[in-house]
Amino acid sequence: MSGLRELKKRQTRENISHNATRLFLERGFDKVTIAEVAAASQVAKMTVTNYFPRKEDLALDLHEVFVAAPAAAVRGRERGESALAALRRAFGDAVARRDAVIGFSGLPFARMIAESPALVARLREFHEEREHLLARELARETGAAPEELTPRIAAAQLGGALRVLFEETMRRTLDGQDHDEIAAALADAGQAAFGLLEPSLGDYAVRR
Architecture of domain 63-201 in CATH? Predict the structure, then answer.
């Protein structure tokens, strides 16, 4: 029975997210209310807020994956691989997949975000959250004390590179470039961005 309940919850969540995205793309994020999303999804307004406490998260439904991805890449790095190398490899894989988590969203979705100050602000919070999570992971992996600066500084550098690359994906999307054009540009941009960090972080948090 628990498996059936979980399936039902997942289906309800996906239904709400699908209808919310459709309405946001049709009319703009700021012009759609939670009540309208609930009506389109044929659920109560409280059901929507139970699954999505913040309206912004209806549009940015990959919040948990987005925030966790860099820390997960570091945690899963191979023997002899540094945190920087793991993130470089993970980014290259995401480019090859045209992954929405690194910004491959398509023009209508990118425009919806760019035109909403609330979504732009929420994305900024996502970047900050994942930087903090990455810092905690780096501290755990290197045995650093909670008050040590090195994991936080490393996370700020790595997170900053990822943020700039995400913004570059969005910029190119808004300029009308297709996924293949963006992927080709990002492959080079990723190598350049992570290469700049190599002198300072190339030997940091290497898995022994």
Answer: Orthogonal Bundle (1.10)
